[in-house]
């Protein structure tokens, strides 16, 4: 299964914020949207990624009061990315090895989406269930 197949199940909307916006507004936006990450865009280009984890790390690094801190101070400037044609197994492996929960998906240089580890896990379970049902059909008299 390719990452592109996961994208068909997701909204095309990419939630973003500017690097000069304050962390306070970024957190409020994440809460309002019910998401765990925001793409950081400058002049329409991805310059970073801000996740809940980055906010927590920023609190340790800069103190608990981040409300006046710019997003650029705590965002990841070179996030791990994947391509739409990469396998879901690749996404799972890179996310696990990199300890990340959100993965920007590119098609060439164009940002298509952000997928979460939850999206990847759901896709892996769907594929495993499909394979399981095929195997059960193959084996005669499998008890249902």
From TrEMBL:
Signal peptide: none annotated. The keyword tRNA processing does not apply. Residues 9-66, 75-131 form the CBS domain. SMART domains: CBS. PROSITE patterns: CBS. PANTHER family: CBS DOMAIN-CONTAINING PROTEIN (PTHR43080:SF2), CBS DOMAIN-CONTAINING PROTEIN CBSX3, MITOCHONDRIAL (PTHR43080). This is CBS domain-containing protein.
């Amino acid at each position: 299964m390719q990452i592109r197949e996961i994208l068909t199940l997701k909204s095309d909307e990419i939630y973003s914020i500017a690097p000069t916006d304050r962390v306070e507004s970024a957190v409020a936006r994440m809460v309002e949207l019910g998401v765990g990450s925001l793409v950081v865009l400058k002049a329409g280009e991805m310059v970073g990624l801000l996740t809940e984890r980055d906010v927590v790390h920023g609190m340790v690094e800069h103190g608990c009061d981040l409300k006046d801190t710019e997003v650029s101070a705590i965002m990841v400037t070179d996030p791990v990315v994947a391509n739409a044609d990469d396998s879901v197994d690749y996404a799972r492996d890179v996310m696990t090895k990199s300890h990340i929960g959100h993965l920007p998906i590119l098609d060439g240089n164009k940002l298509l989406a952000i997928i979460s580890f939850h999206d990847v896990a759901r896709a892996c379970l769907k594929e495993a269930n499909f394979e399981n049902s095929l195997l059960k059909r193959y084996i005669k008299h499998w008890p249902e």
